[in-house]
Amino acid sequence: MKRSGRSIYKALVRGLSLRVLSQLLVVALLSGYCLAAFASPNLYDFKIVEQDTLMLHFDLDSAEASADMFVLENPHRLVIDLPGATLGTELPTEVFANGTVKSIRSAQHGNAQQGSNKLRIVLDLRQAVSPTSQIVPRQGGQRLIVSMGVPSDAALRERAVASAPPPQTILRDVVIAIDAGHGGKDPGAIGRGNTHEKDVVLAIAIRLHNYLVPIQGIIPVLIRETDTYIDLRKRMDTARDANADIFVSIHADAFEGESTAHGSSVYALSMDGATSEAAAWLAKRENDSAALYGDVLLSGMEDGLAQTLLNLTQGNTMERSIEAGEDVLTELQSIGHVHKSRVEQAAFAVLKSPDMPSLLIETAFISNRTDEQKLNSADYQETLAAAIGRGLHTYLLRRAPEGTLLAAQRRETVPVSLPADR
Ligand SMILES: [Zn+2]
After folding, report:
1. Is the pLDDT reported for residue 417 higher than 70?
2. For 59-76, how does the pLDDT look when each residue is reduced to its tens digit (9 = 90+)?
3. How far is the CA of 180 from the centre of ligand 1 (A)?
4. I need a labelling partner for 287 at 20 to 30 A (CA). Which of 50, 115, 137, 370 fits?
5. Buried b (16+ CB within 10 A) or exposed e, 146-183
């Protein structure tokens, strides 16, 4: 091991301090510490040094300096006398707001002609100290090092930080973005009774929002609250700006030439197209509808890097989307007919979010007369909204991201199973 000049110096100081200390123990019992020699030293620098222990450094310009030191109580003080010395520097004059040293005073005592003069430095303290001292030769003089025998303020602060309880984690709410499909100039599908998809899905979206508001740990956010057209990219951006954890787009289905088709369907985002012919057809229709009204259909995503990133992250997001979709589908099954009994996957542009589980819910068939009537009924809108809300809540209780209130609740409610014979 290479020893630097500095560490050799440290070793010397350590050896010196042990020797000095053993001598001091005897001297201290009599009248304080006395560290030899006389001259007319000048105290030209003073420092409070915060290492592990609190230290004081007094730099004197004489090789012959000495010091006497003693402590006083009520209040705690440390007195350091430097025989023959004069003060050639400014000592701190402030009252320290905290820490061991409260303030520092100095005074010239005695008579220089009689050789009885000394520089007395008094430290007012907030706690008792058990000081030791050593004088270390240095270029142009000596340094009196006083170790206060108490941890430095910095060390105390570190210990306080180390032993402090971990900061209270602030649990965030899960954000659900609710997107009412279409809107404004884009009516969506139109029923035989002239029901516009954009109107009924907005009503259901608002009811879903109101269903979720009172649930602790969930913040629902409506992408649109009025009959306005928002392009698909803006819908995703709005959800992202709200830091949404899940995106739910509400629609109503339409089937040309098959008016008997009815009930709900749930779609999750797909990485590679549709899982069924119908899904492909529907994806085309919903996407065409957007294209018809000027959407860009996330075409910017098509460049190489974006697509790679999309594929990397969408795998997991897709699984989560399907899982959430299954929970919603289960609830929809409990209130009525579902058109497809499993979660379909389709390449809806609105679902192509690489980082957010996303669902598209076709609440009912607007092209079916009975479904159209239901979609217009406030009661049925409420029933649909509650079913979707329950499904989302179920999913989030299981899959809410760490750091959320729902995730914390999940941990607390892990059932403890006991053997049956106890
Ligand atoms: Zn639609």
Report:
1. no
2. 988 888 788 899 988 889
3. 9
4. 370
5. bbbebbbbeebeeeeeeeeeeeeeeebbbbbbbbbbbb
CA–centroid distance, residue 309 to ligand 1 (Å)? 28
Q: How far apart are CA 214 and CA 227, in angstroms?
A: 25
Mean pLDDT of the chain: 77
| 381 C-alpha to ligand 1 centroid (Å) | 16
pLDDT at res. 334: 92
The CA distance from 134 to 221, in Å, is: 70
The predicted pLDDT at position 373 comes to: 94
Mean pLDDT, residues 46-56: 85
Mean pLDDT of 372-378: 95
One-letter amino acid of 269: L
Residue 183 CA, ligand 1 centroid: distance in Å: 10
Residue range 261-278, pLDDT digits in tens: 788 888 886 655 444 555
User: What's the 316 CA to ligand 1 centre distance in angstroms?
Assistant: 26
Tokens of 346: 């389709």
Q: How far apart are CA 30 and CA 268, in angstroms?
A: 88
Q: Which residue, 77, 81, 56, is CA-closest to 133?
A: 56
Distance 255 CA to ligand 1 centre (A): 12
Which helix (H) or strand (E) element contains residue 305?
A: helix 304-335
d(CA 269, ligand 1 centre) in Å: 15
Residue 63: count other Cβ atoms within 10 Å of its Cβ.
Answer: 14
Euclidean distance between CA atoms 134 and 14, whole angstroms: 10
- Domains, the chain, with CATH or none: 13-20+27-153 (2.60.40.3500), 174-409 (3.40.630.40)
pLDDT at 6 over 80: no
- How much distance in Å is there from the Cα of 92 to the middle of ligand 1? 76
Mean predicted confidence (pLDDT) in 127-152: 87
Beta-ladder partners of 190: 196
d(CA 177, CA 184): 19
Report CA(173)–ligand 1 centroid distance (Å).
29
pTM, two decimal places: 0.54
